[in-house]
Each structure stands twice: as structure tokens, then as C-alpha cells.
Amino acid sequence: MTATRTAIRRLDYSAPAYLIDRVDLTFELEETNTRVLSRLVVKRNPQTPDNVPLVLHGEELVLEYVKVDGAPLGPGTYTQTDSQLTLPAIADTAILEIVTRINPAANTALSGLYVSAGNFITQCEAEGFRRITFYLDRPDVMAKFTTTIIADKNKYPVLLSNGNRVGSGSMDKNRHWVKWVDPFKKPSYLFALVAGKLVSLTDSFVTASGRNVALEIYVEPGNIDKCHHAMAAAKKSMKWDEDRFGLEYDLDAYMIVATADFNMGAMENKGLNVFNTKYVLARPDTATDADFDGIDSVVAHEYFHNWTGNRVTCRDWFQLSLKEGLTVYRDQEFSSDLGSRAVQRIQNVRNLREAQFAEDAGPQAHPVRPDEYQEINNFYTWTVYEKGAEVVRMYATLLGRDGFRRGMDLYFKRHDGHAVTCDDFRAAMADANEADLDQFGRWYQQAGTPVLEVEGVYDDAAHTYTLTVRQHTPATPGQPEKLPLHIPFAIGLLDRRGQELPLRLAHEPIAQLVADSTSRVLELRKEVETFTFVDVPCQPVPSLLRDFSAPVKLVYGYSDDELVFLIAHDNDAFARWEAANTYASNLLKSAYHALGHGEAVVVPPQFVEAFGKLLTNDHIDPALVALMLELPSETALFEALNDVDPTRIHNARQLVKQALARELRATFLAVYQQLNDGATYRYDGESVAKRSLKNVCLDYLSELDDPMIAELLGNQYRRADNMTDRLAALQALAQRNDGETYLADFGNVWQDDALVMDKWFSLQATSSRVGALSRVQALMQHPAFSIKNPNKVRALINAFCMRNPVHFHALDGYGYAFAADRIIELDKLNPQIAARMASSFNRWTKLEPVRRTLMKGELERIAGEAGLSGDTFEIVSKALAD
Ligand code: TRP
Ligand code: ZN
């Protein structure tokens, strides 16, 4: 929690002066006083000159002693600060023995070794290991670890660490020990230890080469019946990584531990993944379809890290996207292969635009591979993860599926067992395909979302169609000028009847026209590029940026008629959804401006008709229809406007939604009733798709003040045999006057289920009904709430700040003041969580002047707090500099 105010720079990287070959750890676990004995085999890096002292990282440690080759170091021979231990130079190699004491019970930051529900848990990424013992806590120092855990037998029957279990036994004072050996070299951020009263669901997996792997999911007693989905996800992930990338698991056991107290989603520690309970525990009556999806993605993600992150790791933290962007891409592909590729893509893009595009346009904008940071924990961002995944996806788009696989194979062949860089990954992709990816490297260097301005001109006489594409990337903090990027730009052309036209560029021979030539990836490299297609029989409608082939903003002046046409005909699911999204977004923006001028909001009949047709179209996957009918979110609109009044956005969106509900009442009702078939809950693609459309219909209908709809909502709430339907009904009820009794019932029934209570907190925190802030304040006193638990904080406080625009942005400024108070309070307990909450003030310059001034005032108040953590300081000071 040291408040570092100095930046670490990527270009300052230098290789470690010392290396560590072996680590032997012995933990004697006590809640408030744990003893850690560390034996390190240290050697001087051959490149290091003589007499360079050995500087180890260490924070909040009580040092008992250090011995070098068995001899205790006297007080004058080493120096200790609050972040470092400096030892005399080592000639060649030495054995260091270090004993430290730590207090896991007092660790509210949840970084290092901490206590959760009476169990011991570690979280070492990125720099938590230095809160356990003195070490070279940087990812390019890779060592083989052995871990012995000693603890009370009754309180901690289960003792886990990385690798394989090699021995165990009993000791005095009712204690026992277990010893673990991890045969793979790893950086300290992948170390893990878990001890406690846990039970496990076990299973096994036989790898392609015939090795048997034990699968174990550890949870608190009473939760085994909620582990089956996660176990199935683990097995599917193992199989998929073999099939798609030829990658097998490499240890005798793969363990997952679920904990309720966790700063993030999950962590890929070698052989011993630690998960937030949110991404493990699920049963149809407690978890929604989205929760089940989330578990599939996160289990896959952590499992896939075993190769992309663990076997091949990052040289330094600037390379974080090397493992995160790649692993997100891999988990997205897993979900696409096992479910609906189109639905997966649209959801990923929607999320990228709402979160990452906003980040890239704000004070924290940074490249996928950042150039500097103050606190690395602030760089686990949408940009590093989601834009990083888009960058990886572009390799696959440019090189093709087989070319991408060749690149991956070469990457592992070259770098297995090493700590490498994003440039090494790009070089493997280029070399395996003899491709020129030099310019592509700019995707790692330049922040900001590129804009593509596209024009199409049809020449009637020549039967040619010419696309002109102009690219530019806006300035971002520290990067005033940008260079053109290498961009894959996928397109198609539709004729008047909606048929795809074969595509041939002016210089291409006819022979190049193959059956599937109706979709093309154009490669953009220059600021302006033109492409002339020949033999185009009539004026086409272009289908642009198909499958969202690059993370850019497309500007093309589609008319409403063209959008309606694409909604009806585009074969590319993403482009089709995008047409609906653009159409709705244009309508909402004009509704917003109408309200600003005191004018009425009108929904044109053509719009109503297009939505009505979608609703009754049996040829499209109901999940896609559901996605197309969902109006762009208030967050999406916020990003698309300037001098924003968030209340007016809310009102405009509500008026449009209500108009659609009124106009299409009969259709929504008919579709709802047809889909509400009373079938027993099943989690499979078809059932999930149908439920999603059913609940979108319900959501529109709930806007109608009509006793029949009230009854329908009540019935769905009471009769549902699953959480997806029950929560959908409750969500709608919570916005109505008749909602209170249902909310009370839900809170009562689920009071002992922490994850379900999170849903209950969020529902109330995001309600636009009057009094939301005082309700949130009251709920902070609820027995199920705790400010020390990140899930609770996210469910109640972050939900209010990020997903309740009307009340967070209330003109009296109380929403902002409340958020600032909580940031200051949390900063003393858990800086990582406080800093994330502080980013809810990032977009203050986009607001209209009154709110802008109020928000700025709160940012200044936070910045002025004495003893503010480096985490929160970095976020707040960057926001103020905007
Ligand atoms: N590596 C983890 C993942 O993406 C992220 C993570 C888990 C993390 N816990 C953390 C990052 C704590 C920073 C701090 O899978
Ligand atoms: Zn990850």
C-alpha cells in the first residue's frame, strides 16, 4: 500500500541482476502470525558486473533473519526499506535462507496471503508475492518451487499448493503437513497456497496422449451441488485446447478453489487456479443463463492460461496483453465453437464498445502494450484484455485459421519455458507465415480507437463500385500524432434483392472468382485506400466491417432505408445486428435532441414495422432477434453524445421503449406467450436463446401500465423454476410500484446465498425509481453486506455508480459525493477495489457543465486525501489532468 507516485517505464527494462533457480518454502500457518521460511538458490546473472548488490522486493513483512550460505547476516550488512531488502553482492551462486512473519488476518487488500471465511488464500498476481516473503518478484525470474504447508489439522484439513503432492504427515500440537513440488519453472506471480475446511467435487480427464488428470474443485461445505457446471466447463476446455491448438495439460492434477473474497474473476496459478465463487457456484435455481455462460468463459480462460501465460509467460508487466489478450481471444473462440458464434461475437463487440472504447477516449487511454504505469494493478484494463483480444483476432483474420495455428505452433516451439514479449508473439506469427507484420506492430503502440470513414460510388456506365476508406486515430494523452494502422476490413455487397454479389477487384483475373467470394477482407495500410470492384450489375448496398473485423469506429452515411434493408437481408450476423443497432441508436439520439428542444419524441412507423418484422421472423435465431431488439444502452448513448445530460438520455430511451411497447403490444405478447411454454429448465443453446427473446418481450411489456401485464410479471416471478426467468421478472417488477413485496420475498428466500443476494443488491442499486441512493445507503447496513467483500461492493456500490445514471448523476451532487466517500473509505482497506471505483469519475469532461463541475470537485476532494494509495492516486490524478 505504499503510495508510489513515480512512473515505471517500459523502455527502462533491464534483465535481472540475479536469477533464482530453486525456491523451497515452508509455511507455518497462523491467522495473525504466519511464519514463512524461504530457501533460495540464487545465482548472479552472467551479464551482471561484480559487486552489484542483491535487491529483493518485500512489503509489510517482519524480517526475522537472513542467512547467506548458512551464515546469519549482521544488522550492518543489509538495509531494509518498506519495499526492499538490499543484500551484499553474491559472487556466483549462494543459498539464501530468509524467515519472515506476516499477518494474513489483517490483510484486507486481498493481495498476498489472506484469510477468507476462515481459510487461507493467496493472490500473487501481479506483485502480491512480495507481501509473503522477500523475493525477486518480477515475471522474468522463473524458478522451480517446492512448498511445505504446516497447519492445525482440524481448522485446515486441506492444504494445497502448485504442482504435485509428494508427501504428508502428522506433527505435534495437532498439526499436520503437506509437501508440494511443482516441476515447472514459474514466476512468483503464479505461486498459490490454499488451506482450510474445504470439500471437493472430483472427476478426471484423459489427455490425447493418454495421461490421466485428476480434476478437483474445492468449495466450502454445502456447495458441492453447485460445482457441476464448472466441472463440465473444465473438461470441455481441456478437450477444446487439444482439438483446436494441440495443447495438452501437463500435471497430474488440475485444481480449482472457489473463494468469496477475491479482487477479480479468477487466477491461473499453476495447477491451482483460484476463482471468485461467482465463476464456480451455479445451480439453475440460483444462477442465470448469463452466469452459466460466464462460468464457461472464465473456467476456459484460466485453464487456457496454462499454456498462454504459464508455460510461456511475460517478460515484464508491460507485456501483460501477451497473455491476457491472447487468452481472452482463446476463451472467446471456445465459447464460439461450443455455442453460437454470432451471439458470442455480438456480445463481445457490444462490451468492447461500451467499456473499452470509452476507456480509449478518456484520461486512462493507453496502448495495448502500455509505455508507463504507476501501479500495475491499474492496467488490468479493457484495453489490455478486450482490445488485446481484438488484436489477436486480427492476426487470425489476416493470416487465416491455419496461418494463425502455424504462428501459435511456432510461438510455443520457440518460447516454451520462457518469459517473452508481444514482439516475440508478432514475430512468430510473421515468420510462420512469411508475412510482413511490421506495420501491424502499431496496434500495440498507439492508444485510441481508429475511425474509418467510408464512401461508396457506383458507376452506372462502367458497372464498377468504388469504396474509399480513410483512417485516422484521435489524439490521446501523451500521443498527439498517430500513424496509419494495418487494418483488416471485411466487406460484402448486396444487390437490390438482398443477394450477395460476387466480388472481383479491378486488377484480378476472372479465375479468382470462387464460390465463397462474396465476403472479402480488404487490407488497409495507408491513410486513404480505394478499392474498385468490377462487374457490379447494379447499385449495391455495402455490408461493412463484417464480423467486426477490426476494433474501429465505422462512419458510413447509411440511410434509414438501407439500414432496414440490411436488417432484413444481411447474411453476416454481426453486420445485420449492427444495422439494427445503428438504426436504433440514430432514433435514440434524435429523441435525446428532441427532448432538449422541448419537442415530442416520435418513433417513425417504419421503425416500428422493422422491429415488428424481426419479432415474427422465424428464420433468425431467437437469440439474435433478442439482441437486435435490445435498445442501445444508456452507457452506449453517453459515449455517442457531448455535453451529456444523463437524465435526458434515460428519459429519451424510456419514451422510445414505451412507444415500441405500446405499438407492438400484441406482437410482444403473442411471442412471449408462445415462448413461455412451461417447459422444465434446461441449459442448452436453443433453450437459452428462447428464454432470452421471451425475456426481452417481457421487458418491453413491463413498460405498460396495465393490470394484465402486472399479473403476467407476478406469474413469471412465482412460477419460474429457474433464476433466469425469476430474475427477469423481478428486474421488471423492481421498476414498478407493485415491486416491493416481490423484492422483500426474494431477499427473504435467498438471505443465506451470498451470490444470489448480490443480484438482489444490484437490482435495487440500479433501479431508476425515486430514492435509489437512500436505499443503497440503507442496504450498506444489511447483514448480507460487507464493505470488505469486493463482490458486495461491486454488487451494491459499483452497480449504483456505473449502472444507475439517473441517480448517480443526480443534479444535487449527492450521488457523486456518496461515491467519493466510498472511494476514500475503501482506499484504506483495499486500494485495488477503490481505484476501480474511482474510474467511475473518468468521463467527467463529457458531462454538461453543472455536473462536470460537481464531479471535478469530488475528484479534487479524493486527490486531497492524506495517505491516498498509489492505486487510487494514479486514477484520480489522470482524470483531473483530462
Ligand atoms: N490473471 C488473472 C486473469 O485474468 C487476473 C487477476 C486475477 C488479477 N486476480 C488478480 C490481476 C489480482 C490483478 C490482481 O485471469
Ligand atoms: Zn487472464
Strand count, sense and barrel status of the largest sheet are:
8 strands, mixed
Specify Rg, calculated over alpha carbons.
Answer: 28 Å
Low-confidence stretches: none
Strand order of the largest sheet: 6-5-9-3-2-12-15-14
Q: What fraction of residues sit in β-strands?
A: 15-25%
- Treating each run of at least 4 consecutive H or I residues as one helix, how many helices? 26
Helix/strand class? alpha+beta
Assign a percent range to the helix content. Answer: 25-40%
- The overall strand count is 31
- Mean model confidence by pLDDT: 97
The coarse silhouette is globular
Q: Which small-molecule species are bound to the chains here?
A: tryptophan, zinc ion
Beginning-to-end CA distance, first to last residue: 25 Å
Search tags:
882 residues, alpha+beta, eight-stranded mixed sheet, five-stranded mixed sheet, 31 strands, 20% strand, globular, binds tryptophan, binds zinc ion
What does this structure look like?
40% of the residues lie in helices and 20% in strands. The protein has 26 helices and 31 strands. The protein has an eight-stranded mixed beta sheet, with no helix packed on it. Strands 17-18-19-21-20 form a five-stranded mixed beta sheet, with helices on one face. It has a four-stranded antiparallel beta sheet with strand order 10-11-16-13, with no helix packed on it. Helix 9 packs parallel to helix 11. The site of zinc ion has 4 residues, from helix 3.
